[in-house]
Known about the structure:
With 148 residues, the protein is mainly alpha-helical. The protein is built from six helices and three strands, in the order ααβααββαα.
Amino acid sequence: MDPKTDDDEIVTWWGLVIEGYLATQDKLLGEIADRLGLAPASFDILLRLVRSPDHRMPMTKLATEAALSSGGFTKVADRLVAADLICRVPSRDDRRVTFAALTDHGLDMANKARTAAAEILRRIVLTPLGDDAAALAEAMRTLRAFNA
């Protein structure tokens, strides 16, 4: 990028990134809610668990990755337990650690959610962006690493 790029142009670029993300995320989460009845936080947690080894993760780590407070995460986890999507599993190695683990029903729902999300994202991200989608993902990976 040219170091002489106008300040307003740089701020506008960033605003477009945010607006594009929010519009796309809203559309994705709306369709997931319509198809599967999953709230955004529940969808996020199921996807994180289905992609984790043994389909489980320490609850504190899961809350952090999902950007939820411990109280907010507890409420979501309680709803997921009540829906038989996850269960709490105490660690055999550390009494302080409790895992959130997918139940069989939760694994089925998480796989359906992942498949639905991929189908929706193909339509709302890959169709308009084409080959630029991979470049966008790589650019966002670079920003995440630089700013973490």
